[in-house]
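re: ur question from earlier - yeah i can do the single chain one, its not a big deal. heres the input i used so u can compare w yours
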Amino acid sequence: MTSADGPYLRNRAVKGELVFNLRRARARAALLGVGAGGLLAAGVAVLAPDAVARPDETAHGVIVTGLDAVAADSGTVEGRTGSFRATGISTEKRPGYARASVKDLIVDGRALGGVTAICDQGVSRVVYGGAPQDTGRFTVTIGQGGAASVTGLTVTVVDPWGTVTQTVRAAAINCDNTATYAPEPPANGGPVQPASGQVANSTPGSGEVPKAPAPQPNPGHHPVTG
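and the output i got, formated as tokens:
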């Protein structure tokens, strides 16, 4: 190889790299261009546009911040400084449903009774026999219900200098309407109900739409051909 061959070889190397990059870009574009039909034909599950993963329901008995930061979803819990005590705590949750109850709640030495919050298919309600309170230093707020999330009682304690020293949330829940989410695949490998816009009788993984049965000729009628 002579010195005159140097530019020629460098040009060939640059050209080869450009061709390689062009082929790689085309391959990537072809991969990204695969549509839903291609994914179905390959056996890949495709959710309908209106189907999203369903979030988990939540149910908390007591959530406390401030002097005694603690949380509990069952049994009995109380602050180390004696700022609150909650007994008879129980929670329950399943798809589309959540419930949290506190049988008896005492905050800052004041008995507030029991509270229950229930959410069913995205609609919540609060069951409480007491009334709201606001003395400036002690506030009890009752959840209104109706939405997917609600806290049965929110109790706030403020010191003489206006600083919030304790916040107690009792019976806090969240749930959603399960009808708005795609069905989850069954654990036993059985068939899954089709999502919106999917043909129910199509062969899984084939990407084909089933053909209508051929018409049967009636007696006395000539078959149609051509």
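The chain has a mean pLDDT of 75. not sure if urs matches, ping me
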